[in-house]
Design goal:
The protein is of the alpha+beta class. The chain contains 13 helices and 23 strands.
Length: 628
């Protein structure tokens, strides 16, 4: 139920500044500010023609469609109304809910147009049930009857249909939270509470010993596998917590608590959450995943236990704001609405993030005053998660992620969707204090996994992920397609060493006759990468690629045959070859080194490895060092 605020806010029209004065903490003020911006943009898309069959619906500015899922905005509208008492939001919420009811199927589900997917019924019902205690007193008798009948039949549809066998795993805990909310706020019948508990524990059963939830990618014998950190943080964990808090299931909440204590190590100082290595990272935006809700609600639910979670929520919100223009959320920081014929992005990330912020405001346990730093802000640490073969670290001024995640869609069930996430011991995101992102990660090649969420791109884009690669008559081979790479961690007093090895492979995950070792040594002010290439059976022309993220003001300039200078407004780097017979090419095909996900531009440093006439091995070592 929406809580009552300590202050009575009497406003004529929309008065953000006065509403902010009556919020309890800085984090609530920040959530409210962004939520207000998103809701204003969503409100502009609402059909206000009473003679239209789409009256009350939200028109997508990119695809000219009234998405049924966009009706999730009704709850954010209600939350804004609660703060401001501006009745235009109350009216918008009621009209949007009434419109949604007209789109419901006889058996209770909503079809997520333009597809035939019905699992998002859980999301729409959650928003209706969460908003209902406030809206009920403003509905007519007829509307009240329609809303309660609609929520009941939607709830029964989910009772019958929602299982891990039906949907990707994030829908299961979301539905657990939905069933609990429906039971608490609207229909106090045990069938909904019992279904909530069943779904919550089915989710826990998919959690491994490192507290990562499997089930986001393809099916094998009907069972879904694959971990995606973005969906876990943006959806699954808070859904479980919402269920646990409503029903008092402390054991489920403890599972979430353990998971959160681990995944917070993937939150970077600049607020990105590194989901680049996950099985569904084809929609990874940096601020989360494009069609999921967000992590602010998750962090806020536990902020009273550790204010570092509140810090993480605010950092991520800061990064999200870089992808917002005119109240609409786009692909990422640098690419807002690429490929849109109207010049605007679709509504999905806007209403999803609004939903997340509204929930965080209403159910969060926020702290006042100074908050604790996140793990990424301090320390000398490396966290390795053996169940997924991913390591993340903070050493001196650096933070990085290295992944050998070995998920594989064995049957090709997902076609190309789950094939191209980066792996093979690659160092994905690399951050440097006072510089920002040095490198980042993307698909090994661009594949449009979901049509309305990913733009059509005819150009053959280059991956943003640092990598080893070669091409020959048999195709394209890289460590990014190596599903069998090994990873070892060695933490020393003055350095962190990570050693990886495997075979350069093609997109069918077949090796091409060249083995590799990627060895990383990270000290407080330098990062050295050592690449060992072992040619067996053939000697193709191998190259090593380091795409540098083009943050504002960053320039990449070759100084000599072995040195490249990387300058930024606040800090400079020197890239230098220490060992190896290579030729450096800077900026080759730079027009292809961008990606809509995570929405960044890069500038490539390419090292062409000279193939040995004799012997079977080449070693190349190069260092990024901070230029003081």
């Amino acid at each position: 139920m929406i809580k009552h605020f300590k202050y009575t806010i009497l406003l004529l029209g929309f008065n953000i500044s006065l509403a902010q004065q009556n919020l309890d903490s800085q984090v609530e003020q920040e959530y409210f500010t962004t939520l207000s911006e998103l809701c204003e943009a969503l409100l502009k898309q609402q059909n206000t023609d009473k003679n239209s069959p789409e009256y009350g619906g939200l028109l997508d500015p990119e695809n000219d469609i009234y998405y049924t899922r966009a009706a999730e905005a009704l709850y954010p509208f209600v939350v804004i109304y609660q703060y401001t008492k501006d009745k235009k939001y109350l009216k918008a919420a009621i009209n949007l809910g009434n419109w949604l009811i007209t789109k419901q199927e006889e058996t209770g589900e909503w079809i997520e147009n333009p597809w035939q997917w019905t699992g998002t019924t859980a999301d729409q019902l959650l928003m209706m049930a969460a908003a209902y205690p406030e809206l009920e007193k403003h509905l007519s008798a007829e509307e009240k009857g329609n809303w309660e009948a609609s929520m009941r039949i939607a709830g029964m549809y989910l009772v019958k249909k929602m299982e891990p066998d039906f949907a990707s795993i994030n829908y299961v805990p979301t539905t657990a939270g939905t069933m609990a909310m429906l039971w608490k706020n609207v229909i106090q019948e045990d069938i909904f509470k019992e279904k909530a508990k069943k779904l919550a524990w089915q989710t826990i059963a998919k959690m491994d010993s490192d507290q990562f939830i499997h089930g986001e990618a393809a099916r094998v014998h009907g069972v879904k596998y694959g971990v995606d950190l973005s969906y876990q943080m943006d959806m699954s964990l808070w859904g479980l917590t919402l269920y646990a808090r409503i029903t008092g299931d402390q054991e489920v909440e403890d599972y979430v608590r353990k998971s959160l204590a681990k995944v917070i190590h993937f939150v970077y100082p600049n607020g990105i959450i590194d989901g680049s290595w996950g099985a569904r990272s084809y929609k990874w935006t940096g601020y989360g995943t494009k069609t999921a809700d967000g992590s602010q609600i998750l962090f806020s639910l536990f902020a009273n236990e550790n204010s570092a979670y509140q810090t993480a929520a605010l950092r991520n919100l800061e990064y999200l704001r870089k992808a917002i223009k005119g109240g609409l959320v786009g692909y990422g920081r640098d690419l807002w609405a690429f490929g849109s014929k109207t010049g605007k992005p679709n509504l999905y990330p806007t209403f999803a993030r609004a939903k997340n912020l509204a929930l965080a405001l209403e159910y969060g346990k926020h702290q006042k005053g100074k908050t604790n730093p996140i793990p990424a802000d301090q320390g000398d640490w490396v966290k390795f998660f053996p169940t997924i073969k991913v390591a993340t670290l903070r050493k001196g001024d650096w933070m990085a992620t290295v992944s050998s995640y070995d998920y594989h869609d064995y049957t090709g069930w997902g076609k190309d969707k789950y094939r191209h996430f980066p792996r093979g011991g690659a160092m994905l995101n690399l951050w440097l204090k006072d510089f920002g992102m040095v490198t980042t990660a993307s698909q090994a090649q661009y594949v449009r996994g979901e049509t309305i969420h990913m733009p059509p791109i005819e150009d053959s884009l280059r991956s943003l992920t640092p990598r080893i690669e070669f091409r020959n008559e048999n195709g394209y081979f890289t460590n990014l397609y190596d599903t069998k790479s090994h990873i070892h961690i060695n933490k020393q007093p003055n350095a962190i060493q990570i050693n990886t090895s495997g075979e350069l492979s093609d997109q069918e995950f077949l090796p091409g006759g060249v083995a590799y070792m990627y060895d990383y040594t990270i000290t407080n002010k330098s990062l050295t990468k050592k690449v060992t290439v072992r040619y067996h059976d053939r000697k193709p022309e191998v190259q090593i690629v380091e795409p540098i993220v083009l943050n504002e003001g960053v320039e990449v300039t070759q100084v000599d045959k072995k040195t490249v200078k990387i300058t930024s407004p606040n800090r400079n780097l020197l890239f230098k070859i220490n060992q190896g017979n290579v030729t450096i090419e800077v900026g080759k095909d730079v027009d292809k080194y961008w990606f809509p996900f995570p929405g960044l531009y890069t500038y490539p440093i390419i090292m062409k490895v000279k193939t040995p006439k004799e012997g079977f091995q080449q070693v190349v070592s190069y260092t990024y060092s901070v230029a003081e």
